[in-house]
Design goal:
The protein is of the alpha/beta class and 312 residues long. The protein has eleven helices and eleven strands. The chain has helices spanning 14-27, 38-46, 60-66, 100-108, 120-128, 139-146, 176-187, 191-203, 210-216, 218-255, 265-275; strands spanning 4-8, 30-34, 52-56, 68-70, 75-84, 92-96, 113-117, 134-138, 154-171, 284-293, 301-311. The longest helix is centred in the last third of the chain and has 38 residues, at 218-255.
């Protein structure tokens, strides 16, 4: 049988994609996935606009109320309650709409106030912004969301009950052959294979943006930035100091003799121009020493001349 069916697909359940790939390989079916929140997915399934619901967690009463046929479960998971680290007390619980798990927790805890949101992400944001004190979902979904930097300030508490059994939901008025094929494939899906899917996706490295990395390591990044800037400033200062020293050295060599430190001819002309101006008419004496060396091996001075100038 080689037919095309569409299934609603929740983006954060990567394991479900692998399970449907297993079903496709073993049945010849092809699936086209669409992402919807659970309430929309239930409505689309009831209207016959999709053929299967990738995640259904209802019992027979839930299925009858929503006109669904649920397959055998392909994954079981405990329930997690997600809270902030500093809740004073639990009063308001946020639930995603469209899940039988939400109804089961509500029935077991009538003393709480419950609020429903379109998705688990909306529930967590409500907890994060103090609109609710806790949110509930299964442990796999909780782990996937709490790995995000936006929810680093939250914690999870695993509850003993209820256990979330995840199935594939198909319309009760749909093709019975489709239900039979998918249910049979799930029946023969090895538990070890599902465990391998879980390990694979839990081990995958989450791609982290630069902004998320900085938010997660703000103190360390700040220290590194300060260290790098300090090194750059030190290098620039050292280069400027060396450049000034080299410039002074060049000036000294240009106007002074390297051996004696006395002015050379360039120095003489410079001082002459500085002092031979109408504003600096004054008497001074210039003592000039000249050294001539022959190109001999000993390279010793042979002549010395002293010339005295008196300028008025």
């Amino acid at each position: 049988m080689h037919s095309d069916y569409s299934a609603s697909f929740l983006k954060y359940h990567c394991v479900i994609a692998d399970i449907f790939e297993f079903i496709a390989k073993n049945s010849g079916l092809r699936f086209e996935f669409e992402a919807h929140n659970q309430t929309e997915a239930l409505q689309l399934l009831q209207q016959g606009k999709i053929s299967a619901l990738a995640l259904s967690d209802g019992d027979y009463l839930w299925d009858g109320r929503n006109n669904i046929n649920s397959t055998l479960y392909y994954l079981r998971a405990p329930t997690s309650m997600i809270t902030r680290y500093d809740p004073d007390k639990l009063e308001v619980i946020a639930f995603p709409q469209g899940y039988q798990l939400s109804e089961a927790i509500k029935a077991a805890n009538p003393h709480y106030t419950f609020k429903y949101y379109p998705s688990i992400e909306d529930c967590l944001n409500a907890v994060l912004h103090n609109k609710a004190d806790a949110a509930c979902t299964n442990t796999h979904v909780a782990g996937a969301y709490l790995s995000r930097s936006a929810y680093q300030g939250m914690r999870t508490i695993t509850l003993a009950q209820p256990i979330n059994e995840m199935c594939v939901g198909l319309s009760a008025s749909g093709d019975p052959k489709l239900f039979s094929i998918i249910n049979k494939c799930i029946q023969y899906l090895p538990t070890e294979q599902v465990d391998a899917y879980l390990v694979t996706h839990s081990a995958n490295t989450k791609e982290v943006s630069m902004l998320e990395f900085i938010e997660q390591h703000l103190w360390q990044v700040g220290c590194i930035v300060i260290l790098v800037l300090s090194i750059i400033i030190l290098l620039i200062g050292s280069n400027l100091r060396n450049a000034l020293r080299s410039n002074r050295r060049i000036q000294d060599l240009l106007y002074k003799d390297e051996l004696t430190g006395l002015y050379n001819m360039n120095g003489f002309y410079q001082k002459w121009e500085e002092n031979n101006t109408p504003s600096k008419q004054q008497s001074f004496v210039l003592l000039y020493n000249g050294f001539w060396k022959k190109k001999e091996e000993n390279n010793t001075p042979k002549k010395t001349a002293v010339i005295c100038f008196t300028l008025q």
